[in-house]
Amino acid sequence: xxxxxxxxxxxxxxxxxxxxxxxxxxxxxxxxxxxxxxxxxxxxxxxxxxxxxxxxxxxxxxxxxxxxxxxxxxxxxxxxxxxxxxxxxxxxxxxxxxxxxxxxxxxxxxxxxxxxxxxxxxxxxxxxxxxxxxxxxxxxxxxxxxxxxxxxxxxxxxxxxxxxxxxxxxxxxxxxxxxxxxxxxxxxxxxxxxxxxxxxxxxxxxxxxxxxxxxxxxxxxxxxxxxxxxxxxxxxxxxxxxxxxxxxxxxxxxxxxxxxxxxxxxxxxxxxxxxxxxxxxxxxxxxxxxxxxxxxxxxxxxxxxxxxxxxxxxxxxxxxxxxxxxxxxxxxxxxxxxxxxxxxxxxxxxxxxxxxxxxxxxxxxxxxxxxxxxxxxxxxxxxxxxxxxxxxxxxxxxxxxxxxxxxxxxxxxxxxxxxxxxxxxxxxxxxxxxxxxxxxxxxxxxxxxxxxxxxxxxxxxxxxxxxxxxxxxxxxxxxxxxxxxxxxxxxxxxxxxxxxxxxxxxxxxxxxxxxxxxxxxxxxxxxxxxxxxxxxxxxxxxxxxxxxxxxxxxxxxxxxxxxxxxxxxxxxxxxxxxxxxxxxxxxxxxxxxxxxxxxxxxxxxxxxx
Length: 609
Fold this sequence. Notes:
Layout lengths: L1 E2 L28 E3 L1 E6 L2 E7 L4 E2 L5 E6 L7 E5 L4 E10 L3 E6 L8 E5 L3 E6 L8 E9 L2 E12 L8 E4 L7 E4 L43 E8 L3 E7 L11 E8 L6 E6 L3 E5 L6 E10 L2 E2 L3 E2 L4 E2 L5 E5 L8 E5 L4 E10 L3 E6 L2 E2 L6 E5 L3 E6 L8 E9 L2 E12 L18 E8 L6 E7 L14 E10 L2 E2 L3 E2 L3 E2 L25 E5 L3 E5 L13 E8 L6 E2 L9 E5 L6 E10 L2 E2 L9 E2 L10
Parallel strand pairs: 7-13, 26-33
Antiparallel strand pairs: 1-2, 2-5, 3-4, 6-8, 8-11, 9-12, 10-11, 12-13, 14-15, 16-17, 17-20, 18-19, 18-21, 21-22, 21-23, 21-24, 25-27, 27-31, 28-29, 28-32, 30-31, 32-33, 34-35, 34-36, 36-37, 36-38, 36-39, 40-41, 41-44, 42-43, 42-45, 45-46, 45-47
């Protein structure tokens, strides 16, 4: 892409895009841009297709619109005690502001309003005649506004008539007049009931001997929610009723039924606001409801918002490494270290610990403790060989996740010892052989060495070698003794063998990533080792293998100096994996974790201009 007034093109996507659409982000507002697209295959990059006109980065404004369903009713009729639920969908840019109002009064406290970017609902529970009237729903943004009105009728007893006035009062008669009720209860007034009593002729009162508390059944509990499920149980939670009916709430009754059944059965009773229903059948669908209880009896039931299928939830495993700074633990040789990591997942994940590529098991020094919410690895009497990357793998039916913690064990190096013992018989000469790392063939260097040292020349720079020496006398040749692997490169540039006695091989590089694929080549990249072993990393060796084999084959003929390498000569249709070794003056690191298996094939893409 490029800005329309500059003409300098920039690449947008860092990696090849396979799909035929792409979202460009982080653009400047109100700026004009031009775009073009090119297809790429194994042969290279094709011609570009440019969008005809420049595009300005501005929001597209549209006035609010109401999405009215075909079954929309202008008038809603409900009985007293039932629930009212009004639903309206809308759209507009920017997202409109949605409001609900009542024409003749304010919305009551029982009105529950839910608003999203595309719809809004108004719910009034346990409605009465005061909830009747005209409701107005309005959406508004910078481009305009839209409104729609609903009429709600609540079928209930009418309100009181009045006020009463008198007319034509005589000794034997009186004419009464009154106004019709303001609220008719949603139906026409059939007739009125007129009663009378004498105001002055009252008898002697009779009082009760004991006080009476006026009580009634409580209101239903609020919001019965499904909190959690397993393959045989469900956890329910709810809120206290709005009022207790004048008597303390003494408990709650849970009921349930299978989906499609008409028969409710008792699931349990409790005084708490949560309850676990057990003994359910896996993969069956259930409905639940709850009643509150006081001294006057049980309330009306409150049902859960929806039914629930009884099954174990599938939650991908994860681990919390925030308690380990930079995912690095450092300790001294001989001390203990502990890796304590909180874990989660449903079902409870299976835990596996590895040091580099070696799976860890409990020994006298290694202890592994795992519960459903954390895992702990403890290593006692640590040695330098315990250094490296520890991989925690969590696996359940929802997926597999691997987490890495690096441990560095520091301490003084051990003493240097001589590798060769000489017998009492006079040695006539020594035989020196060499072997390149990654091969099994030994090559003769010199078979008539008279002294106990030799300078080996004509070595390949940065190649790792192993040497072995045999002594020879008049009785024959001894068994050979091998040297440690060593690299033919000194940090100060001498092309002869030298080794920093205070250095150790580096830690492994990171797991390689395949970022480009074609039919006969792949490009991989990795990050340098966390610990260089006390000597600068001077190169990397790459190994590859086919997915279905166990034989790793060295790829590069000489060390690679960058953390990036292109592997060629692959066979189309086969899957390959790669691993990396880091090289310093002390030798090769352990192998990195193998990359994921990648199929050698040309990328498939299409450009529609």
